[in-house]
Write a structure and sequence with these properties.
The chain is an alpha/beta fold and 176 residues long. Strand 2 and strand 3 form a beta hairpin. Helix 1 packs across helix 5.
Length: 176
Amino acid sequence: MKVVLTGPPGCGKTTVVKRTVKKLGQRAVGFWTEEVRDPKTGKRTGFKVVRTDGKVTLFASKTFTSRKLVGSYGVNVNRFEDSAVEFLKNEIEKGLKGRVIVIDEVGKMELFSRSFKDLVSELIEDPVSDFLVTIPVRDVHPLVSRIRRLGEAVLIEVNGQNRDHLPDDIVLLFKN
């Protein structure tokens, strides 16, 4: 089963992913991304990867010097690859029978990584892997467009009306 979540920023995609991961427990393997905010001002300063094993890595920040920019955020591709991509590759090598790969998200920052693009391309073509992936509303890259148009995937647009019950619905999809 392949489940693809989409929706505008702030609609609750990551919250749905985190709640679904909690419900799936040890079956879930992968990562989600979260904003990093300045504790004093509350303003967003960057983004971090949170893996299902609990490891957290800052991979984009307003303070990073990088040629890879999304708005005012410098993206450290090596940090992203060392944390998220290598973790997924290692878990895939261990075997995925009965497990669900979680990728939040296939977005502009993550797509700077060639190894991430290659890994996601392999996963979406694999007829037996189960995954939960989030994509932006707009096709910011040909890979996002491919994911959106996967024939065997369930594409769900997250919104205020469905986000609270989606984790239970998604877990049911992976049981069937």
